[in-house]
Design brief:
The strands form two sheets. Strands 3-2-1-4-7-5-8 form a seven-stranded mixed sheet, sandwiched between helices. It has a two-stranded parallel ribbon with strand order 6-9. It has 268 residues and is an alpha/beta fold. Strand 2, helix 2 and strand 3 form a beta-alpha-beta unit. The chain is built from eight helices and nine strands. Helix 5 runs parallel beside helix 8 and helix 7 runs parallel beside helix 8. It binds guanosine-5'-triphosphate (GTP) and magnesium ion. Magnesium ion (MG) binds next to loops.
Length: 268
């Protein structure tokens, strides 16, 4: 970890507390400075943690330079590429250790507009989890190729039906979590490496009774750098959603069977 500059007054948002924006990075050298500048301009009272997986393109060093000039920016250096989910879990742990009340998930590539952040934080006043949603009324997706649109639409439809979650954008990665709500979730059980992490956390939060709210965002295709999306990541998401769906149905069936047996036992 690096980046200790000057005195940094702690700012508590009314109704939310101290907020940390976690930005995972892997080879985002061209994106990390602009995204941090945009976050700082859009929400000057929040802190930023860049969770870099030892990017070969030098993103970590650029992040260090940002942290050296801005006391609200910190860097978590991780030894190597371990996936988005692992980077976020490390960021959540970092936030918890330092007494933050809420964490924001945001991509580094500009797809998640920092200018939408104030609306997400405002919505978190009445929610445990806020999802910046691409698939609710008022949302916009800009410049995405048809195959990505279809993948996201179909993936979300599958997650929603298979898992019975009332969430339109369960794969979306622009979120606010209250850390107190995450206390009710066994983060140690999270097994996703790639983007199924977002679905897994949605599912666990929903099962834990979290108040989940979706706020429309304008989502844009990344402007610079290369996507880390791969067929392996898509396959992992499909596979895990299917496994969770089977597990949920088995559990529901067991409840029905045990409930019926319990009912019979009460009769003479
Ligand atoms: N620390 C870390 N960050 C990662 C890893 N994989 C992806 N990221 C970051 O996670 C964010 C999302 O990754 P993207 O490649 O933009 O994935 P995506 O948004 O689904 O795909 P595109 O829309 O094609 O860009 C970016 O900030 C990446 O740099 C990883 O293994 N470790
Ligand atoms: Mg992206």
């Amino acid at each position: 970890m690096s980046g200790a500059v000057g005195v940094r007054p702690q700012v508590r948002r009314p109704g939310l507390g101290r907020v940390l924006v976690v930005i995972p990075t892997y080879n985002e050298a061209d994106n990390v400075s602009p995204i941090v500048a945009r976050v700082r301009a859009a929400a000057p009272d929040v802190d930023v943690l860049i969770a870099d997986d030892n990017s070969p393109d030098g993103t970590g060093a650029i992040a260090d330079a940002l942290a050296a000039t801005d006391a609200r920016v910190r860097v978590l250096h991780r030894p190597g590429k371990q996936g988005l989910g692992a980077a976020y879990l490390a960021g959540f742990g970092w936030a918890r250790e330092r007494g933050y009340d809420a964490v924001v998930e945001m991509d580094a590539d500009g797809s998640h507009a920092p200018e939408d952040l104030p609306r997400l934080l405002a919505a978190a006043g009445d929610a445990d989890v806020v999802i910046g949603s691409r698939w609710c009324r008022g949302a916009k997706v800009v410049d995405w190729p048809l195959r990505r649109l279809l993948l996201s639409r179909c993936g979300n439809l599958y997650a929603r039906v298979a898992l019975g979650m009332p969430v339109a954008d369960a794969t979306g990665g622009y979120r606010v979590y209250r850390l107190a709500a995450l206390d009710a979730v066994d983060l140690g059980s999270v097994c996703s490496q790639g983007y199924s992490f977002q679905v897994e956390l949605s599912r666990l939060a929903h099962r834990a009774g979290a108040r989940i709210v979706e706020v429309p965002i304008t989502f844009a295709e990344r402007e610079r750098g290369a996507s880390k999306m791969s067929p392996v990541i898509v396959a992992e998401a499909l596979w895990r959603i299917s496994v969770w769906a089977v597990q949920d149905r088995r559990a529901a069936w067991r409840r029905v069977v045990h409930g019926a047996r319990g009912g019979q036992a009460r009769w003479p």
